[in-house]
Design a protein that fits this description.
This protein is of the alpha+beta class. The chain folds into two domains: 3-34 and 293-479, Multidrug efflux transporter AcrB transmembrane domain (Multidrug efflux transporter AcrB transmembrane fold), CATH 1.20.1640.10; 107-289, 2-Layer Sandwich (Gyrase A, domain 2). The chain has helices at 3-25, 34-37, 58-76, 100-107, 127-131, 198-216, 264-277, 294-323, 325-348, 357-386, 391-423, 427-457, 473-479; strands at 39-47, 82-86, 89-95, 113-122, 148-152, 165-174, 178-186, 189-196, 223-227, 230-233, 251-255, 283-292. A five-stranded mixed beta barrel has the order 4-6-5-10-9. A four-stranded antiparallel β-sheet has the order 2-3-1-12. A three-stranded antiparallel β-sheet has the order 7-8-11. Strand 2 (82-86) and strand 3 form a beta hairpin. Helix 8 runs parallel beside helix 10 and helix 11 (391-423) packs antiparallel against helix 12 (427-457). The longest helix has 33 residues, at 391-423. It is elongated. The chain starts with a helix and ends with a helix. 35% of the residues are buried.
Length: 480
C-alpha cells in the first residue's frame, strides 16, 4: 500500500475543511430565507382594463413584468429576493422587509409615465367639473393615442378633496424615453429630476417650442406630466422661452413636495426608482399579501436544529457500538460533512443562494446519506474479513465495491435533485439544491477523507478482526 497518495489526499481534505471553518469563524454563514428570517410574501395577478382583450403575446408580457419587478426589487437592495411566475400569477418574496405600504407602492405600481399637452383646465365649482367623473380612488390608465380627462394628483393639490381636472391630449413623450431619474431637493420640497434620451430630448424641444407659441396666443401652454392616469404636475413654459425656440437638454422634473419629516424624501426616492426601472407592461393587483414573522422562522429553525442534533447523537452512539474505531471515523466524516456543507452554503450566499426550512430538510436527509455511505464501506470490510482476507486486503477490496455502489446511488439521487430543481418552484428548489450539493460532497468526502483514513488505520493495530466483531472462518465452520 502506497501511503504517500493517501496522506496527500487526507492533507488536501483537511486544508479545505480548515479553510471553510475559518470562513465560518469570520461570519460567512448561509443567508436565511423568508421562512427563517421573516419578511413579506405577495402574489400578484394581472388585470385587464374593461373591454381590453388578452394580447397574443401575453406570456412574453408576463415575463417582461417579472423582469421589471426584479429590477425594482434589486434597486431596493433586498437580499436574496425570490420572484417567480406561477402560471399567470407572480410570486414575490422579500426576506427582511416589513414595510407593507412601501412594497405595494413600489412593486405593484404600474408607473406608466407620459407627457401630454393640456387642452383645458377644469377648475372646481365649474359646471364641467360637476358633470365629469369624480376624482376618487385610482384613476384609469389613459391610452397613449387618446386624449382624456385626468385628475390632479391629490398629494400635489392645494385642495385634495377637489383637485383640478385637466383635459389632456395624446401622449407625446413616454416613460421609455427617460434615460435617468433621481430624487433631489428643491425650493418647495423634494423633486424627481428626469433626463430624457436623445429622441425624448428632441421631442421635448419641439413641444416646448409649440407650447411657448400657444402661451403667447392666450392658450394654457401647459405640459402635463401624467403618472398612472393622474396629473402629477402641469408646468407652464417659462417666459424666457420664446415661441419657436424650445427648451434644449431634455430635462424635466416632477415636484413631490414635503420635507424629510413629511416623507417627501422617501416618496421622491421611490418614485425615481419606479421611473428609472420602467413601467409595468400590465396592471397588477395583489391577491395574497402576507407578512411572515421572523419569530416563527426562528422557532422552526431551532426545532429543526434540535431534531438534527438528536438524530446525530443517536447515529453516533450506534456507529461507535457496532463499529468502534471505524465508527469514530464515520462520525468524523459526518463532522467534516457538516463543516463543508455549512461553508459551501455560506459561500453560495454570495451567488444568490438563500437557506430555507426546505433546504434544511434537504441537509437533514443528506446526513443520513453520508452516514449510510460510511456504513456501506464498513459492512463491505466486514464481509471481506468474514471471507478470510486480512484487514488490509479487505479494506482495499471493500472500498472498490462500496464506492461503485455509493457512486451509483448518489448519481440517481443527484439526477432526481437536478430534475426537481429545474421543474419545481418556491421552497422545493431549496430542498433540491441542498440535496444535490450534499450528494456531491458525500462522494468527495468518502473518497478524499474516509478512504485514506481507513486505509491508514488498517496498517495499525486499531483495526483488527476482533475490533470488527467478525467471526473467524474456522468458527463459522464449527457453527455450521
Amino acid at each position: 500500500m502506497n501511503r504517500q497518495p493517501l496522506i496527500a489526499s487526507l492533507l488536501v481534505s483537511l486544508l479545505i475543511v480548515g479553510a471553510l471553518a475559518a470562513a465560518l469563524a469570520t461570519g460567512t454563514t448561509p443567508r436565511l430565507g423568508l421562512d427563517l428570517r421573516g419578511g413579506i410574501s405577495v402574489i400578484y395577478s394581472p388585470v385587464l382594463q374593461e373591454g381590453e382583450e388578452q394580447p397574443d403575446d401575453f406570456e412574453e408580457v408576463l415575463d417582461e413584468t417579472v423582469e421589471v419587478i426584479r429590477n425594482r426589487v434589486d434597486s431596493l437592495g433586498v437580499a436574496e429576493p425570490e420572484i417567480t411566475r406561477q402560471g399567470e400569477e407572480i410570486l414575490v418574496q422579500l426576506p427582511g422587509i416589513d414595510d407593507e405600504d412601501r412594497v405595494q407602492e413600489i412593486i405593484g405600481r404600474t408607473a406608466k409615465l407620459t407627457f401630454r399637452r393640456v387642452v383645458e383646465i377644469v377648475p372646481p365649482g365649474s359646471e364641467a367639473y360637476d358633470e365629469t367623473p369624480a376624482c376618487d380612488g385610482d384613476q384609469p390608465d389613459i391610452p397613449d393615442n387618446d386624449g382624456a380627462l385626468a385628475c390632479e394628483q391629490a398629494s400635489q393639490s392645494a385642495n385634495p378633496d377637489q383637485p383640478l381636472k385637466y383635459r389632456v391630449g395624446p401622449a407625446e413623450i413616454g416613460g421609455s424615453e427617460i434615460a435617468q431619474a433621481f430624487a433631489t431637493i428643491g425650493q418647495g420640497g423634494y423633486v424627481v429630476s428626469l433626463e430624457l434620451d436623445d429622441e425624448g430630448a428632441e421631442a421635448f424641444e419641439q413641444i416646448t417650442s409649440d407650447l411657448a407659441c400657444e402661451r403667447d396666443q392666450g392658450q394654457p401652454g401647459l405640459f402635463a406630466i401624467v403618472l398612472d392616469g393622474s396629473v402629477y404636475s402641469a408646468p407652464g413654459i417659462n417666459p424666457s422661452v420664446l415661441c419657436g425656440q424650445g427648451i434644449v437638454g431634455g430635462q424635466a422634473s416632477i415636484t413631490v413636495g414635503g420635507g424629510q419629516d413629511d416623507g417627501g424624501e422617501q416618496e421622491a426616492t421611490d418614485l425615481s426608482l419606479v421611473l428609472r426601472t420602467g413601467a409595468l407592461p400590465i396592471t397588477l393587483v395583489s391577491q395574497d399579501f402576507r407578512t411572515v414573522s421572523p419569530t416563527l422562522g426562528s422557532e422552526s429553525l431551532q426545532a429543526g436544529l434540535l431534531a438534527a442534533a438528536i438524530g446525530l447523537l443517536l447515529v453516533a452512539i450506534y456507529l461507535i457500538i457496532f463499529y468502534r474505531w471505524l465508527g469514530v471515523v464515520a462520525i468524523t466524516a459526518l463532522s467534516v460533512f457538516g463543516v463543508v456543507m455549512t461553508g459551501v452554503l455560506g459561500l453560495a450566499g454570495g451567488f444568490g443562494f438563500t437557506l430555507t426550512l426546505a433546504g434544511i430538510a434537504g441537509i437533514v436527509v443528506s446526513i443520513g446519506i453520508t452516514a449510510d455511505s460510511s456504513i456501506l464501506f464498513m459492512e463491505r470490510i466486514r464481509d471481506e474479513v468474514r471471507l478470510g482476507k486480512t484487514v488490509r486486503t479487505a479494506v482495499q477490496r471493500a472500498f472498490e465495491s462500496a464506492f461503485r455502489t455509493n457512486l451509483a446511488g448518489n448519481t440517481v439521487t443527484f439526477a432526481a435533485a437536478l430534475i426537481l430543481y429545474f421543474l419545481a418552484v418556491g421552497p422545493v428548489r431549496g430542498f433540491a439544491l441542498t440535496l444535490g450539493i450534499a450528494t456531491l460532497l458525500d462522494i468527495a468526502i468518502l473518497y478524499g477523507f474516509t478512504r485514506p483514513v481507513v486505509f491508514l488505520l488498517s496498517t495499525t493495530r486499531l483495526i483488527r478482526r476482533d475490533n470488527l466483531r467478525v467471526e473467524s472462518p474456522a468458527t463459522q465452520e464449527v457453527a455450521s
